[in-house]
Amino acid sequence: MERDLDDPALAEFTHIIIEEVDRLRDLVDCMLGPNKLARHEPLNIHKVLERVRTLLIAETPGVQVERDYDPSLPDFPGDEAQMIQAVLNVARNAVEAMAEAGTDQPHLLMRTRARRQFTLGAERHRLVCEVALIDNGPGIPDTLQETLFYPMVSGRAEGSGLGLSIAQGILHQHQGLIECESSPGHTEFRLLIPLERRHD
Questions:
Q1: pLDDT for the residue numbered 50
Q2: Ranges of each domain in the chain
Q3: How far from 195 is each of 7, 42, 65, 187, CA to CA, in Å?
Q4: Mean residue pLDDT across the chain
């Protein structure tokens, strides 16, 4: 299908659509399978973020999506398709909340950092990857912050309440977690993933 398109921009978007269909098929297979664990192959988090950024820009061209990456972060064991879905769910929530609130000059920052000697849950890790998604939207109401990751909880009229719950499940499969801090004009989600996997 891509080969039949003369316009390079259309060919690029067609390529993205084909890759997304394949990724979503794999994700559905994984979710419907008998508790199939994520694949753990070398994963480059910046490649994941670039894919999410491309999708966000294609879906919502009015949002400025900025990057602040730590180039020292190494690849780590993970499932690329699942990690794309987790980051995309969190980022889409931010973009949709800003659109619903009519945020002036909506802005999303995608930032990566390495955290040393970091505790996730009760486990101390030598090195952790932190992916922060920071927006300038309306913020999350205090009444929702405690139940944010529960299924079917949404602060948006059109929200299903599944995106953050799915993202949290994916991070849990990668032995990580998601944190959130929010106030009007500043919401920050941090996805924290250990760079060395424990074998259970």
A1: 97
A2: 37-194
A3: 40, 10, 25, 25
A4: 84
Q: Cα separations (Å) of 18 from 2, 23, 24?
A: 9, 9, 10
Q: Does the pLDDT value for residue 177 go beyond 90?
A: yes
Architecture of domain 37-194: 2-Layer Sandwich (3.30)
Residue matched to tokens 């802005």: 107
Strand partners for 127: 116
Which pairs with CB-CB distance under 8 Å and at least 24 residues apart come from 96-101? 96/156, 96/158, 96/159, 97/135, 97/137, 97/138, 97/140, 97/155, 97/156, 97/187, 98/63, 98/135, 98/136, 98/137, 98/138, 99/60, 99/62, 99/63, 100/156, 100/157, 100/158, 101/137, 101/138
